[in-house]
Amino acid sequence: MAKISENEDYLCQLLEQQLEITGEMEKAIEVLVAEQGIPKRIAESLACGLQIFPKRYELNAGTFGSAGQKKLLRSKVMVAGLGGLGGHVVEQLTRCGLGILVGVDADLFDETNLNRQLYSDLNTIGLRKTEITKRRVEEINDAVEFHSFVLRVEDLEDEAYDGVDLIFDCLDTIPSRLHLQEVGGRLSIPLIHGAIGGWYGQVAIVWPGSKLLSNIYGRRQEGIEKVLGNPPFTPAFIATLMVSEGIKLLLGKKERENTVLFADLLNNQWHCVSL
Amino acid sequence: MKLEIKLFASLQKFMPKAEKVELDDHCTVKELLEKIGINSSEVAITLVNGRHVKLDKTLHDGETIAIFPPIAGG
Question: Does B72 reach chain A within 8 Å, measured CB to CB?
Fold first, then answer.
């Protein structure tokens, strides 16, 4: 990345030249990638810096701005857990144009995933979640890089977090979530926490050093989802809140605060609780 | 003393019929939970007048208690 930032002005000049020749930013980006050997997400970020959005981001432009889209294309986030929440989080981040996604999940898709997990279908039962998720990301946006670890988060080495700006906690067990809180604190990486059960869900930012998840869960091993299960709409809803919170944080639109947003989809009630 | 109780999500089924519940003075959050039939393992966050408290917190007349269950699925 240091090399690219040193050569950024030069690469921008080349991109502008190619735009003049080809008349289309998508083609200019392809030429730059082929000739300079840079990642496509970097070429796209240069285009955004020139205030010319690749078409796939045109409807992001008014919301993120050119500096914001460029920032997202140069960001790296981890999605821990590629199940109900994680699938929707990956899908939205990919369409946002989030440069590098690191997916972590040791599981295979099974029949019990079919009611809610975006990438589970009759053809993916028995296949690795990381593998199917990577394929889906590539089908949606070939500029987004998807790296994966077929491991539990407890088994990840610290190197797995290199360069990670933000971690999405889409896990489904309390001990794993508390482990991620500890890692985020130690490596100074904020977490976007999301959890679901029945009609209900919660979202919070866990800032490095915060013990917010310990305060919520204490020594409990499980939550209301063990009785209520997880219907299709709650993970999609909570994942959406997680992604918007994460994007705001990456774009510097989020104040540091220790709050948990509770969503009750049965009664359409939302509560923001300060801890 | 009288307290206002707000129960959220799956805990709403434990809501007493009366809006305000009468309790002995110096009752703790834990004793309140027992009175309305909630096991403390079903509770994640307890707020008194909007502030996060532990289960041994003593309650006072007129306070509002809000209780949230643990949610951990993904």
Answer: yes
Residues B12/A228, Cβ–Cβ less than 8 Å: no
Strands (E), A162-258: 166-169, 191-197, 200-206
Contact B74 A195 (CB under 8 A): yes
Whether B72 maps to a domain, the answer reads: no
Q: Which residues of A touch B56 (CB under 8 A)?
A: none
Range of the domain at A6: 2-59
Q: How far is A179 from chain B (nearest CA, A)?
A: 14
Residues A39-93 have pLDDT tens digits of 999 999 999 999 999 999 999 999 999 999 999 999 999 999 999 999 999 999 9
Judge: A216–B69 Cβ closer than 8 Å, yes or no: no
- A64 within a domain of the structure (yes/no): no
Closest-CA residue of chain A to B74: A172
Do A253 and A153 share a domain, yes or no? yes
In a domain, B12, yes or no: yes
Phi and psi based region of residue A77 (left: phi greater than 0; alpha: psi -120 to 50; beta: remaining): beta
Which residue in the set B9, B47, B74 is minimally distant from A200, CB to CB?
B9
Beta-carbon contacts of residue A9 (< 8 Å; ≥ 6 apart): none
> Tokens 């857990």 correspond to what residue?
A81
pLDDT digits (tens, 9 = 90+) for A106-132: 999 999 999 999 999 999 999 999 999
Instruction: Give the domain extent around B26.
Output: 2-67
Question: Does B39 lie at the interface with A, CB-CB under 8 angstroms?
Answer: no
> Is there a single domain that holds both residue A90 and residue A45?
no
Residue ending a domain, choose from A59, A90, A107: A59
Q: Using 50, 70 and 90 to split pLDDT, how confident is the model at B19?
A: low
Structural domain count, chain B: 1
